[in-house]
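Input.
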Amino acid sequence: MVVAGCGTPAAVVPSPTPAPVVTATPANPATATPSPTPTATITPTTLPTPTPTPGMSAEARAYLDRALDLMEQHSINRAKVDWTRLRRAADALATSALTPADTYPAIEDALGSLGDDHSMFLPPDQVAALQSGALNATNPDPSGRLLDNGIAYLLLPAFAGSAELAEGYAATVQRLIGELDAGQPCGWVVDLRRNSGGAMWPMLAGIGPLLGEGQAGAFVAPGGQQAPWFYAGGRAGYGDSVQTELDSALVYPPLDPLPPVAVLTGRTTLRSGEAIVIAFRGRPDTRSFGLETGGLTTANEEFPLSDGAWMLLTVSRFADRTGKVYGGPVVPDEVVNPPETWPDPVVEAATAWLLSRPACSGLDR
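Output.
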């Protein structure tokens, strides 16, 4: 956090007072003519002129006000915030701001004061990195394999990137589902333990054939209004808005009948990763294993600013298809605290449950 302000002026050293000039007293005081008492000459001290503190420029003022107005209009906690106090604090931090970039620390501080633990600010360079896919470079690609017991294992990692990259991610997941389904697994493991979030729509569009078509959850606004999430035929979105759509040639049909699914979660399952966990809640023949999620089960909306920066404001909470509203960690159906060992005890617990399901029991695996 950078606080702009005026520096303390350098200390001023006063000019010394000149010593008075004294005439010597004659040897015979009786005949001496008294000399007048000399008057000391004092040179006035010149104080330096203080440098004035520049005020916020009109451009910076408009930029900061726009950001604060958006927060007050859209934040999920807008009814709980003391907006007069928040604005005064932001003004104090940006008191000498001359450019939009000079207000960034004040905006970030204000976002932190909203108390939702999820809102964030992306300067223009980070927005460009997000849109180019550079921010997604550290995420692994989706992957899958058939386990020795005939269970299909699918790793669904985080994703952050452009719409074109999003379609590629969703197509990769659907292709993996098709390849694994060719092996006729009786049950599926969906591993979300490394999914720290990003964009939920390519994840939802990708996992759709395994999740099943129709409503998968909802956004719930502070006033209780709901916008349902859906998957249908390679398309994922909410309400009437399609957010990710696959070319029809790349769409794998829903698995029929829907097989049992074990969902794996952990404390680094966050944000959109948690949305996919919640999308499986209420799905028939589904159970979750591992540790509780990170607890950011809220939705952010992008608000572009004039210089290309984005504010990502938390505006709603997640709900599952049964209507249960979240807003904190998702606790798995079966808590498994894994030691650092192999085989993976979370996968073992999940496959043990899957092998007990009617779809798998009695099969020669």
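The longest helix spans residues 163-181.
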